[in-house]
Amino acid sequence: MKKHHYNILGVMSGTSLDGVDLAYIEFEFDVKKQWNFNIVVAETISYSDLWKKKLAEAITLNRTEIDRLDEQYTVHLANIIQEFIAKNNIKHIDAVCSHGHTVFHRPDLGYTLQIGNLPILADLIAQKVVCDFRVQDVLLGGQGAPLVPVGDRLLFSDYQACLNLGGFANVSYDNRLKYRIAYDICPVNVVLNDEVAILEMSYDKDGLLAEKGIVNNQLLEELNALDYYSLEAPKSLGIEFVNTFIKPIFEKYNLSVEDKLATVVDHIAFQVNKGIPLKEGSKVLVTGGGAHNNYLLHRIRHFAPHLEFYKPITKLIDFKEALIFGFLGVLRIRDEVNVLASVTGAKYDHSSGKIYDYFNKNY
Hints:
alpha/beta
């Protein structure tokens, strides 16, 4: 008989390199067969400059160097998890559900890699671990992303769409046939944060710099003309897209940081409007680091005035992905579908993720 209550530690590292998000969550499957959750405690552990450099340069490494980094990162992740558990005096955990950190994501070539998902993680933290959620989907012909739509559907059904503004923007919603549709829309913080790095800033707080800038219409048109934006879903993005297409375009323009930021913000807002084809009055839940960027939200509302964008409490804005990867782990433990073929393009719905059961040594 399946359990109805789970104490889960969700762990997430995003492409924007902000750090490791950890959320200790209580999940309850109630008598109405609906899922409820409570984020008990959550924290982001920032990466050191050294780890930011290592992760940013990982895409350039060879296979042997990647394997070494994978081992080092798994140990680093284990230390972060152990310290979080001790600091918050957490006594009972059914599973630690970890996304790992994406180094490569090329589903079109049949591979994706998230480091930090080695079996040794379970031994180091002495917990059951559920991880490596994307690989199976790619092997089944899917994009391996986005994976959050199952959580969006089961945990946030009050909204017609869920928009995440993280390293990349992604959205999920039910289409007219009630199939869940989801895809990456465009780069967000992975580009915005990179532009302010020259000013020795981690991010553009509240979008104040972007608000001062002047949009360069030629650059904006060139960004909006990229082929990816005309593709039909399923589709997903990785850092390779930024390096291959976005950065070479930027290099052609001698603009101030403010003007580049202003142009990128309007690019994001334009693509978000294009990427959420819902009727007037539809409610959209907005989470991720970009939800704190007031100017970005202002421009999104300007380009999509027919939609209602809602910002939840800060804890949910910052830790929704850690929450949902925790939830994906719960579904995996229950051997229930946690990846939708309608979203990723895989051959069929499936239950994805590796389980390293420390207590039964099932790995």
